[in-house]
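can u pls check wat happens w/ nickel (II) ion
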Amino acid sequence: MAIFDTHAHYDSGGFNADRMEVLAALPVSGVQLVVDPGCDVESSKEAVALAEAFPHVYAAVGIHPSDCAGTDDAAIETIRALAQHDKVVAIGEIGLDYYWQDNPPKEFQQEVFCRQIELALELDLPVIVHDREAHGDSLAIVLEYPSLRGVFHCFSGSPEMAQELLKQGWYLGFDGPITYKNAKRAPEVAAITPLDRIVVETDAPYLTPVPYRGKRNDSRYLPYVIEKLAEWKGISADEMERITFENGKQLFRLE
Ligand code: NI
């Protein structure tokens, strides 16, 4: 078994009680690689520290749209410095989130998103994009940077939007919600996504798949997401696991 959880927030407070134990136990449960994306300067630092502590953990560094209030030059410079670390494989989690009323204004989110995209291009790193209820603006912004590559995390856009991104060489991330009964768009998006562009994510401690919905998520529940995708694509779960592991390595350029 070799599972790659390409998006899990082990730096989050949800793991304060048992973070090191959970992370240490992952390889024996078949989870051989994890990327932990930061959501602000502090959590990016913590993600890097976890990547230093565990050979199977890599970090991404960035400022999440919901946490971007007050982002200034100094914050971007700190992200730039953290991104030079050997185990940092992407800039993320960055993007736009128009869902929460009290998030920073759209224009400011867009400015912080663009600054971090430019940082990724300068450092030749892929990006991990968070797009919640901001599909039109997220797509328009990434298409302004034709050489930009990365993953749309927990992709929730339309099949048409997926098509645009796939044409540009992007990967799409699939998470626990694809196991929920009301998942409508996800099977349509999966149907048009080539096998070599699918990555799997937990977004732990959030988005726990059925049958553990409601509990804290961790990478050991990722097989439920892999099984659902395998069913939709008409291949075995083993094959889906192998393919998504390779895709994660390609996306984050891991040997
Ligand atoms: Ni996330």
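The first helix runs from residue 19 to 25.
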